Amino acid sequence: MATPVSFRGLDAVRLDGPRGASLVVALQGAQAVSWVPPDGRERLYLSERAVRDGRTPIRGGIPVCFPQFAGLGPLPKHGFLRTTPWRVVAARSGPDYALVTLETTDTDATRTLWPHAFRTELTLMLEADRLDLELCVTNTGGVAFTFTGALHTYLQVADVGRVTIDGLQGCAYRDAANGDRILDEIPSTLTIQGEVDRVYRNVERPLRVATDEGSLIVGSQGFTDVVLWNPGAGKGDALADLPPGGWRRLLCVEAACADTPVSVAAGEEWYGRQSLVVA
Ligand code: TA6
User: Fold this and answer.
1) Whose Cα sits closest to atom 12 in ligand 1?
2) Which tens digit of pLDDT belongs to each residue from 148-207?
3) Number of structural domains, the chain?
4) 197 lines ligand 1 (CB under 6 A)
5) Are 112 and 150 spatial neighbours (Cβ–Cβ below 8 Å)?
6) Which domain holds residue 57?
7) Cβ neighbours of residue 118 under 8 Å, at least 6 residues apart?
8) Minimum CA distance residue for ligand 1 atom 2
9) 174 lines ligand 1 (CB under 6 A)
10) Is 78 touching ligand 1 by the criterion CB < 6 Å?
């Protein structure tokens, strides 16, 4: 059962899962804005300065970026789905799970920006210590299209400088904070010191994101890339929708198709998934 709620000023639905786990999903963008597993600790960062006007991107949670990742094309940054209203099309639960599916389709406004017919569905499945998000993109038109995109997950951390990330060894990355240089010298355990904005390519293993308070295993399927983003102090404090020092409390670990666009033939579907597991 997905219960309509107002969450910090956002129109949303709430899922109550096993052992007290909960999830809140804003209707704008089908954006998860709160995930609390049974231990009671919020795992998603949502800025207290996030704009809640129904049309500005919401800073935090899990934005759905489509059909363009970041500024990799002529569309608004990260595409238009994160500023689009979605609707709930299914919700159900059992003893071990609760799930909700939201959908949006092309409109006159989206076709003005991007001349394609599509349906996107996001299914969010909550288990006791696990959250899965599955994005399904259907080409409902008569010609193939390509897209880039991401599930732009903002994890909440006590101090980003104390986080370690394992699992990216061997993956080359494009360093967007460093002139888009392609680099491949990656230590087995990564830490975040200063601004980080990297697209790791062809990531096949799940990552372990460890904080002082515990770890998350972050996996994906369908998405080829993993993006790590933290704006650091300079850029973070310049963002109007982040509070001073807010950058310290977030780390984006994104399941993305950024550097290799996805092609979807007429009438076909594409699926991508990100899984977050409390470890
Ligand atoms: O995914 C990383 C990134 O593209 C960064 O370059 C950074 O700008 C971030 O997304 C947030 O973008 P936004 O448009 O939400 O400010």
Assistant:
1) 70
2) 999 999 999 999 999 999 999 989 999 999 999 999 877 889 999 999 999 999 999 999
3) 1
4) yes
5) no
6) 2-278
7) 67, 105, 106, 137, 138, 139, 140, 141, 145
8) 229
9) no
10) yes
pLDDT tens by residue, 220-266: 999 999 999 999 999 999 999 999 999 999 999 999 999 999 999 99
Locus of tokens 């689009």? 84
- Of ligand 1's listed atoms, the one at least distance from the Cα of 239 is 16
List the structure tokens of 273.
């998934």
What single-letter DSSP state applies at residue 246?
G
- Beta strand 97-105 with 87-94 is antiparallel
Q: Which residues pair with 200 in a beta bridge?
A: 173, 226
CATH number of the domain that 138 lies in? 2.70.98.10
Residues 64-121: pLDDT tens digits? 999 999 999 999 999 999 999 999 999 999 999 999 999 999 999 999 999 999 999 9
